[in-house]
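Progress note, sequence design subtask.
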C-alpha cells in the first residue's frame, strides 16, 4: 500500500511539474532566447501573486532589447500599484531614443498621475518629442471689443510641448486654452481700432506669448498663431441705441407723470369751482330772505322793490341781447369758414 501511495505522490508531482513546464516553458524559453532570462521560480511566484508573467516578461524583453535594464521586481511593483507596465516601458524607450532624461521611477509616477484621465504616459512623452497643436477655443471663436467699439472675433492655434518636469501636478490643456483666450481678449481690448488688429494679427500672438501663460502647467508653449480673425458687430453703436431707447422710455415715463399730475390738478380746480358756485347759489338764496326781513322792519318800501325789479329785468334784457349778438357773430364766422 505504501508503495502505491509513494507512486501516486510521485505521479502527482510529475503531473504538476509537467503542468508548470507546459504553462511557463514558452515564456521561459522566450526570455532566455531574448537574453533577458527569468527563472522558473520567479515565474511561479508571479503567477501566485496574480501578476501576468507574459506581460512582465515581454515588457522586460522589450526594455532589454532597447538597451534599458529593468528587473522583474520593478515591473511587478508598478503593475501591483495599478500602473500600465507596457506604456512605461515604451515611454522609456521613446525618451531614450529622443535623448530626453527620463528614469524609470519618474515614468512610473507619470503613468500613475495620468491614470483615469484618458491619457497615457506614452502620449506625454510623444508630445514632448513631437509638439501638439491645441485649438483655442476648441470650437467657434473668441469675441472681444477694441477701443473704438467694434467687435473682433479671433481663433488661435497653440503649439505646445509636454514638460515632463511639471507633468505631475501641472495644469492641463484647459488651463492653456483659458489663459490664451484671456490674453487674446486683453490684446484686442487694448487695440485703438479694429483696423490695427486686422492689419497686424501677429501683435496678438506676440503679446499673448510674452505673458508666460505656460507657468505651472504641464506644457511649454512654443508658439501662438492667429488662425482666423474677422470683424463682428458694432458694439458701441448697439450700446448707444439701447441707451437712447432707455432714455426715451424714462422721458415718456416722466411725461406721463406730469400729465397725470395736470389731470389731477384740473379735476381739483373743477371741484373747487363747483364748490364756489354752490356757495354763490347759497348766498343768492339769502337775498329773498333779507328782502322779506327788510319789508317787515320797514327798511324797504314797495317802490324800492319795484325799482329793484326793473333793474333786474333791464339786466336780464341786456344779457339776452348780448348773448344773441355773440351767437350771430359765431354763426357768421362759421359761414365764412
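Output:
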Amino acid at each position: 500500500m505504501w508503495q502505491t501511495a509513494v507512486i501516486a505522490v510521485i505521479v502527482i508531482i510529475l503531473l504538476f511539474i509537467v503542468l508548470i513546464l507546459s504553462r511557463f516553458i514558452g515564456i521561459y524559453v522566450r526570455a532566455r532566447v531574448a537574453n533577458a532570462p527569468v527563472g522558473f521560480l520567479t515565474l511561479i511566484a508571479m503567477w501566485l501573486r496574480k501578476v501576468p508573467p507574459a506581460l512582465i516578461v515581454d515588457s522586460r524583453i522589450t526594455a532589454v532589447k532597447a538597451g534599458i535594464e529593468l528587473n522583474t521586481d520593478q515591473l511587478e511593483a508598478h503593475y501591483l500599484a495599478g500602473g500600465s507596465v507596457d506604456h512605461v516601458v515604451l515611454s522609456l524607450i521613446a525618451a531614450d531614443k529622443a535623448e530626453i532624461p527620463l528614469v524609470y521611477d519618474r515614468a512610473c509616477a507619470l503613468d500613475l498621475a495620468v491614470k483615469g484621465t484618458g491619457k497615457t504616459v506614452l502620449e506625454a512623452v510623444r508630445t514632448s518629442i513631437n509638439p501638439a497643436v491645441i485649438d483655442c477655443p476648441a470650437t467657434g471663436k473668441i469675441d472681444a471689443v477694441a477701443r473704438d467699439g467694434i467687435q473682433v472675433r479671433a481663433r488661435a492655434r497653440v503649439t505646445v510641448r509636454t514638460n515632463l518636469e511639471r507633468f505631475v501636478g501641472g495644469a492641463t490643456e484647459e488651463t492653456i486654452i483659458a489663459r490664451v483666450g484671456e490674453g487674446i481678449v486683453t490684446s484686442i481690448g487694448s487695440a485703438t481700432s479694429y483696423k490695427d488688429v486686422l492689419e497686424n494679427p501677429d501683435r496678438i500672438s506676440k503679446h499673448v506669448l510674452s505673458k508666460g501663460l505656460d507657468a505651472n502647467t504641464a506644457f511649454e508653449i512654443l508658439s501662438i498663431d492667429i488662425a482666423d480673425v474677422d470683424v463682428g458687430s458694432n458694439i458701441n453703436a448697439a450700446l448707444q441705441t439701447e441707451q437712447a431707447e432707455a432714455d426715451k422710455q424714462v422721458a415718456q415715463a416722466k411725461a406721463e407723470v406730469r400729465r397725470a399730475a395736470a389731470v389731477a390738478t384740473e379735476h381739483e380746480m373743477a371741484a373747487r369751482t363747483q364748490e364756489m358756485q354752490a356757495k354763490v347759489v347759497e348766498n343768492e338764496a339769502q337775498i329773498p330772505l333779507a328782502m322779506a326781513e327788510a319789508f317787515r322792519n320797514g327798511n324797504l318800501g314797495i317802490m324800492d322793490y319795484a325799482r329793484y325789479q326793473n333793474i333786474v329785468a333791464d339786466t336780464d334784457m341786456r344779457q339776452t341781447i348780448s348773448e344773441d349778438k355773440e351767437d350771430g357773430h359765431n354763426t357768421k364766422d362759421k359761414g365764412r369758414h
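The chain has twelve helices and four strands. Work on this subtask will continue into the next period as scheduled.
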